[in-house]
Design brief:
InterPro entries: FNR_nucleotide-bd, SIP_fam, SIP_rossman_dom. This is Iron complex transport system ATP-binding protein. Pfam families: SIP (PF04954). Keywords: ATP-binding, Nucleotide-binding. Strand 2, helix 3 and strand 3 form a beta-alpha-beta unit. This protein has a three-stranded mixed sheet with strand order 1-3-2, with helices on one face. The chain has three helices and three strands, in the order ααββαβ. The protein has one domain. It is of the alpha+beta class.
Amino acid sequence: MPEAADALGGDNPHAELSWLPRSGEHGSALVSAVSQFCRTDRAFIAADTHDPDTLLPDIDVDSALLWELPDLASSGDFYAWIAGEASMVKTLRRLLVRDAGVDRRRVAFMGYWRAGKAEGS
């Protein structure tokens, strides 16, 4: 299991990097961090918001891939790239697009594996 000591150093003037050692289910620390970001950094994402009532197609992560690519031609500074366990990615998709109002054209979502499921299941 990843631990805090596994974090790599490095500075990037164009991005803020946060290491989140796993302390429970896959993605639980990330869901918590994104929820906190959506509550506290509204000004950062405000320029890239859309109507929060825009419908998101419901994806059954047990039978379909959650794979949406962003529209990089759309304006704005905010961009999110999320890949990982499908149900966690679906949760983050809802947090960002539906709850925080981020334009879904500004986010790449890739739920490419499922906890407890073998490949091809």
